[in-house]
Write a structure and sequence with these properties.
Two copies of one chain form a homodimer. Chain A contains nine helices and six strands. With 202 residues, chain A is an alpha/beta fold. A six-stranded parallel β-sheet of chain A has the order 3-2-4-5-1-6, sandwiched between helices. The longest helix of chain A has 21 residues. Chain A starts with 5 loop residues before the first helix and ends in a 10-residue tail after the last helix. Strand 6 of chain A pairs antiparallel with strand 6 of chain B, so a sheet runs across the interface. Chains A, B: One of its GO terms (cellular component) is cytoplasm.
């Protein structure tokens, strides 16, 4: 990693470049990805929003359905709502399920959100569809995972779908193309009593 | 997790709500966070961009300096460049170090990028500063980690700084408030020969 001379450095970099070129040459498949962001760490939703920003930058239309986080005034909602022709941003549900304390209402909200996701997946206008916190809904059995698998499996070839939230069901991980686990190494909530910070966590 | 009746559900949710309220009540500290995204998985940069979107949504000004990824036509650059009053987006370096094969030039680019980051950290106008892929630069010893620690430690109380990239140095992790490791569970590059997809990876 730390060669001593510039000549050694350049020699090593030539080798890495050749290895990279060889690796990239085998990667020729273009396809829409089923992406899952899970784990107990930060970055599951924000990474999906970063990919939304990237997609809009490339002229691709994005659909976002946010489950669970119904009532929070979030920066992502404020920002993305400025571009109604490029991104459709729906928020479903009336907050965390421990706040609503009404399972029937939560289930109805989950169902309504899922219908929006299905509509966006079926609509060729959307290149990327994000189902934010859908894993929470699946975890509470508010929606059968089979129904989610059916819709994502039947998606158009170039359509990207991102599903976020802790505790992704194994069946979804098995079906996914790209799965990342966000692992908490250090969190100021616990160690420093820092509250959720605007711009970072919402 | 899966109570049988609605009454059981509501009872359980009341308990979770009370526990959440108690936990949140202890979280009263407001502070600018030093955030590190590391690990070999996806989502380190995109999550930082998602936080940039959130911050802009809340009217906070953002500065981004992107190391290493000099020449790629990325969606994030295209998108964020549309808002020059709200975000300053600088790209430094001329690509991956194995492509430039010129250590002196890489070091000069790293230094120039770091000067931009320092300027943004020192400028009260920026609420969030993102040093994207800075860990790579540190890994190659193109910049001493001590200098980075000095600048981030001296930052204003409410300033957020995000540093991304694999192999974050331990000294940086020790100094950080919030550290997430993006862990690769499944990647289509390896398993399906899928190439980097527009909107998702760049």
């Amino acid at each position: 990693m730390k060669p001593r001379t510039d000549a050694e450095h350049n020699e090593r970099m030539k080798k890495i470049q050749a290895a990279q070129a060889k690796k990239i040459a085998t990667k020729t498949v273009e396809k829409g990805l089923l992406i899952v962001h899970t784990g107990n760490g930060k970055g599951k939703s924000s990474s999906a929003f970063g990919m939304a920003a990237r997609s809009i930058g490339h002229g691709m239309k994005v659909g976002i359905v946010q489950f669970v986080k119904g009532t929070i005034d979030t920066g992502e909602k404020r920002f993305f709502d400025r571009f109604p022709d490029e991104i459709e941003f729906k928020r479903m549900g009336e907050g965390f399920t421990w706040d609503t304390q009404d399972r029937a209402r939560d289930i109805a909200a989950a169902r309504a959100g899922w219908e929006e996701v299905k509509r966006m997946i079926a609509d060729p206008a959307y290149a990327l569809v994000i189902a934010d916190e859908l894993n929470i809904v699946l975890r509470y059995d508010y929606l059968p995972v089979e129904e989610v698998l059916e819709a994502v499996t039947a998606r158009a070839e170039m359509k990207h779908v991102i599903i976020t939230g802790r505790n992704a069901p194994q069946a979804l991980i098995d079906a996914a193309d790209l799965v990342t686990e966000m692992t908490e190494v250090k969190h100021p909530f616990r160690t420093q009593n820092v509250r959720a910070q605007k711009g970072i966590e919402f």
